[in-house]
Design a protein that fits this description.
Layout (H helix, E strand, L loop, with lengths): L2 H17 L2 E6 L5 H13 L2 E4 L3 H8 L15 E6 L4 H12 L4 E7 L2 E4 H9 L3 H41 L1
Antiparallel strand pairs: 1-3, 1-4, 2-3, 4-5
Amino acid sequence: MDRAQKEKVVEELGQIFESSGVVVVAHYQGLTVAEMQDLRARVREAGGSVRVAKNRLAKIALEGTDVSGIAGLLTGMTVLAYSEDPVAAAKAADDYAKGNDKYVILGGAMGGTVLDADGVKAVAKMPSREELIASIVGCIGAPASNIAGAIGAPASNIASILSTIEEKAA
């Protein structure tokens, strides 16, 4: 890799660290190609991405960022899982780590906060953005459906009373 390629990689990594809602750093030593493809597919399905980069270039990209504290995690064979959603990549990485002993979460960063392995697991347990939006919409929609039910109920009661009166008259 020549200098221009390295500069391009550092720039891409810098954008990843700046724009991602969460970055998870993990060791992947011993993973087969199929297992790595499975990890990539799971993270992609969750709305994130996986990136393997040279630790030295990643450390250079981290300099001057809010999450420069994760530079100490970049030792050995490391892989980065990241997403714009502050929970998606952490959930996917945690789920994958539960089923594969060779994939070990070291820590990560969420926004400007540096996380240890337990912090990443805690973030993974949080509801995703879509789940939060769905619960908020449910809370907003519930009173409206109750009002519609209350408005519609008297009309149905009147109709049933009228039908009962009609049956008695006949």
